[in-house]
Write a structure and sequence with these properties.
- The chain is an alpha/beta fold and 279 residues long.
- It has a single domain (18-268), classed as NAD(P)-binding Rossmann-like Domain (Rossmann fold).
- It contains nine helices and seven strands, in the order βαβαβαβαβαβαααβα.
- It has helices at residues 31-42, 55-66, 84-95, 121-149, 178-198, 216-224, 227-233, 243-254, 272-276, and strands at 22-26, 47-51, 73-76, 103-106, 156-161, 203-210, 265-268.
- The protein has a seven-stranded parallel sheet with strand order 3-2-1-4-5-6-7, with helices on both faces.
- α1 (31-42) links the parallel β1 (22-26) and β2 (47-51).
């Protein structure tokens, strides 16, 4: 018998395929959510539900996504996820289109910048409510649809958008982001709790922790901290995040290739957080 006959190889041609999957993306009308939606559709998702607070933005995003020519379809369902009743309504609206959901990308979020002495109580509550509480409620309300889709060999996915600000230190000084940093640290820990709770129910949970990407949310703080070129130059790989960084990571985590990632987080900052910590 030849040595070659003893070698068993697996078929990995479809390892990143999401053919026929159903996804829901909160905060999906722009920025990281829109990049992820594009990646999921191009990887084969049959339906990708886009939600954000502004109906026009959702419709424009879906129009652009559907113009890609993919077999799947982007569907707009606007909702203000800062309101628990709206999260419940969103889940019910999605259930009118499908009896299961394979992927929930909990991406909606907010930030607030101000000095320590001037940081208002209301702003802290607003950021924590959207970045933590609404993420939990969203996972809770979509759990029945996620349970219907998941199996031991192909579990459903929850992906939560955290931030490197929840791992290291966020912006300080006159434009400090205390609430944002605290909320993203909480999101990372919520991911671990959900992973253990929902894993036995065929739902696995992971998080992404992006650094600076040129999005509407990040553009203001980037300009206040030296501008895009300065931030890129200070990053070990000398660039900011680009759309395929998000799209590729989300597709990986949702595909067969990422089916054993549960409770972990993927840092997407080019090594910037570690570059800051060197002696």
């Amino acid at each position: 018998m030849s040595a070659q006959a003893d070698v068993q190889l697996n078929d990995f041609k479809s390892i990143f395929s999401l053919n026929g999957k159903i996804a829901v993306i909160t905060g999906g009308s722009r920025g990281l959510g829109l990049h992820a939606a594009s990646g999921l559709l191009q990887a084969g998702c049959a339906k990708v539900f886009i939600t954000s607070r502004k109906a026009k933005a959702c419709e424009e995003a879906c129009e652009a996504l559907n113009a890609l020519g993919c077999q799947g379809k982007a569907i707009s369902i606007p909702a203000d996820l800062a309101k628990p009743a709206e999260v419940e309504r969103l889940a019910k609206e999605v259930a009118k289109h499908t009896d299961k959901v394979d992927i929930l990308f909990a991406n909606a979020g907010a930030t607030w910048g101000s000095s320590f002495d001037d940081s208002p109580e209301g702003a802290f509550s607003k950021v924590m409510d959207l970045n933590v509480k609404s993420v939990f409620i969203c996972c809770q309300k979509f759990a029945p649809l996620l349970r219907k889709a998941g199996t031991p060999s192909d579990p459903s996915r929850i992906i939560i958008t955290a931030s490197v600000a929840g791992i290291g230190i966020g912006s300080l000084g006159e434009n400090a982001t205390f609430a944002y940093s605290a909320s993203k640290a909480a999101a990372l820990h919520l991911t671990k709790n959900l992973a253990v709770e929902l894993g036995p129910q065929n739902i696995i949970t992971s998080a992404i922790a992006p650094g600076f990407f040129p999005t509407k949310m990040a553009s203001g703080i980037m300009e206040l901290t030296g501008g895009t070129k300065a931030i890129a130059d200070a990053t070990p790989n000398k660039r900011l995040g680009v759309p395929e960084d998000i799209a590729g990571t989300v597709v990986y985590l949702c595909s067969r290739a990422g089916s054993h990632v549960n409770g972990g987080s993927v840092v997407l900052d080019g090594g910037a957080i570690w570059g800051k910590s060197r002696l």
